[in-house]
Amino acid sequence: MRRSRVVALAAVVPGALALSLFQAPVGAAPAPDVPVTDDGNYTRHDGGTDQAIRHCSTGGSNPAPDNDPADGDADSNDGGNRRQGNEPTVAIDPTNPNILAAGWNDYCQSDLAAGWMGIAFSTDRGRSWIDSTIPGYPLDNSAEGSQSPLKGRTDAGDPLVAFDNDGRLFFGGIAFNRAMPQNGSVFVGTYGANPGPAGVSGQLPKDYLRTRIVGKPGTPSLNGIFQDKPMLEVDRSTASPYEDNVYFCWTKFQGFGRNKIYFARSTDHGRTFSKGMLISDGFVQGCDIAVENDGDVYVSWRSFAAPGAGRTDGMRVVRSTDGGQTFDRPRQIASFTPYAPNQAGQRDCGDGPFYCGDPGFVFHRVPLEPRLTADQTGAVDGVFATWNAVAPNSIQPSQSPYYSAGPGFVGRSLVYVSKSTNDGQTWSAGRAVDSSGADPGHQYFSDIDAYGGQLVTVWQDNRTDDAYSRQLPIGNRLDAQGRAVSSGDDVVGTYAAVSEDGINWTPVGMVSSTTHQSQKEMFGARDIPFQGDYNWVAIGDGNGATAGGLFAYMVWTDNREVVDGVDPRETEAEGGFVDGFDVAQCLVDLGRAAGDVNEDVPLARADAPYSGNNCGNTGGLDQDIYGTSMPIG
To answer: Kindly report the CA angle at 627 between 622 and 632, in degrees rounded to 5?
Structure first.
């Protein structure tokens, strides 16, 4: 995948115990999981501070009105560090396995009219974390941040991190505006191998150097060209003639059926990148990169079914033998039925404008993100792909308007892995890594890594949910009146499996210390759920593979800290009831009589009369990134 030695987040346990856990045999229990986004202070890249850093370091909650519009803060009572975080990525420094880096979509600046990419560092193998944010955000007044090419964008996300063999950290993602001019771009930035400067807000173990735009900005129109869904990898193979090359791919969105995968590389440690090169065919979206021990580069992507030869739902791949300068023709890795929860043509269903019809199911999107990896040490031969898809023998007609295996059908989602040992020319049939009995739950958001002769997959799984059914979205059940309600908090956990050949897999079981309800409605004005689009796993070398120091680190989006609440827009409506998906909020009914709206009050929703929410830090938005370390040999 993009990392071989990429890891992050470890355990909150005494140092001696944590280090001893890394010596355990394959299949040993993971360490206790910890939050990376720990509701604490943020450190700016240069040690300085500004309004955004102070805001993201605040967790206080005060429902009083915000009476100072001049400060640019839409709601200064909302704080920042108990806002949402999702789509995590992690990496480990190959020059020092105690230094970890993590990235995520960070919403701590939402009340400052910005959404940005969080980045965190650990110097003790994940037992504690320093939260930060990549430079260039709207209120970044540092010298380096002001010069960032990301300046002028209000949002950044789709985070990626990867180290090279000299300890440089590369981060990537997308940057854009939610209003015109949108200027959607993809970028790669670099932190140097040495610590950053110390200052009032602390010091980071890596020094920020630069950011480069890789893909040209999209058109200013919200409906025009948009660069999105990138992936980043570094050649860390000491046997490769292209060691330390930085590789980057992304999707150029320009209308369904016309989306393309592009690829660029840097041969000078991220100072410059080649012009984006078209490498895909057909209907495509998303990409991933793997580098073999000999330096061969592979890029895979999601393919969609459509009229024409070779256009099927599945994954395709191309290979480069010259360090990413040229690629061969695309080949099919696998064809399958995607697991895609949907109702009324919508993949995000909730309340208000996101209501998808009776019985009122609530569910977040589950897109297929292609995942690819190779063991850059050469200890395991081949290239490995993973995906989650509907098990063919589980497909049945849907008994409601909801479907997950194509219109009119539902099925169970499983995680599969396929292997190629002949330079990507042919691939083994996808094998389920953990079938876990007859039909205990859905598996999704799969990821895979290989290093030092070991492979690990990770995914989300709702096998603990007593209400699980192929006929229902994850975390939903039907009450006595036939209405969709939450099935509780014992719904989704994080699971893993290990292998030494990519064919025979040993399930590890649940690696998260608890489960959570993934369908909490904390997005879209507290109308819909969102978990991001992926998880991440990486294998690191704690103290030498021959000494048995290999360990995996897994990260995921987690709602365990989210505080439940009641939405008066639902309970006060005719026939209203508590469905269990709502989060803590403080809406006030402003109506003086039925149908009466106070037009002097700015309304947060079209179905008011209700006030806006000024109490985000009562915990209703406290979505976090969690992770855990697991010894693998």
So the answer is: 170
